[in-house]
């Protein structure tokens, strides 16, 4: 390879590396704080750990899509795969922990969305679509119904989503419970009951504050009926905790192929039983013309 070819090769790789950082590294650096800013502006600071995990999940999806395209572009220009991989690693375009961090962030965010948004959205569609089509009516407010069935609304959708999502992103799917549990544990350890007397503090008040769910949403007509701060804590801490546990259980069920085993067991045809002559009630009659065989003593 001549000097001119070496120079052209170096220029090609330099331009490819610059393009890689502009199309891969820069968007990843931008999307994480942008997602955090959007979440804080849109929903408030209570859920900020999930904004970070959401930003990491989006960044990982972009990284997983853009990096193969970058490698394919170099391959089309005559650079072999081993050299492309070496250049990517040397210039920081390959991140060894990206799959681990991205998978964890993806499943954590998906589980939190199930508890905070997806489950309540499904419940609202029940009130808006299903009940009117069925000709049924209810006087209970959907928000109150959600609080009264918060465990069920948080667990069932997350269980199904965790089972399905872990089919496509298997790594660390069973760890979706980790971050919600850490957040709940921190809240319990640092809890100070604003309504409790300093002379009569009950050790279980912190658990009841979070796990004894309020029964009605606050409204403008009766602010005394419920505690808005407590409801917000239960919606942003307890609901993701339930959905994180359910999501992890769903992923574990998929890992063990539980549903496939159940379906195979239901659809499998029973094997025909083989009956002998005695079981069928048939009496054996010997032919007197046949010689009798005597066994020796």
Question: How would you sum up this structure, described in words?
Answer:
With 297 residues, the protein is mainly α. The chain folds into two domains: 1-96, no CATH class; 98-260, no CATH class. It has ten helices and no strands. Helix 7 runs antiparallel to helix 9. The protein is globular, with a radius of gyration of 31 Å. 26% of the residues are buried.
Quick structural gist:
This protein is an all-alpha fold and 297 residues long. Helix content is 67%, strand content 0%.
Tally of separate helices: 10
Q: Please report the distance between the alpha carbons of the first and last residues.
A: 98 Å
**Order of secondary-structure elements:** HHHHHHHHHH
State the helicity in percent bands: 55-70%
The structure class reads: mainly alpha
Shape: globular
What portion of residues belong to β-strands?
A: under 5%
Low-confidence stretches: none
Number of domains: 2
Largest sheet: none
Mean pLDDT score: 85
| Oligomerization state | single chain
Nearest-angstrom radius of gyration? 31 Å
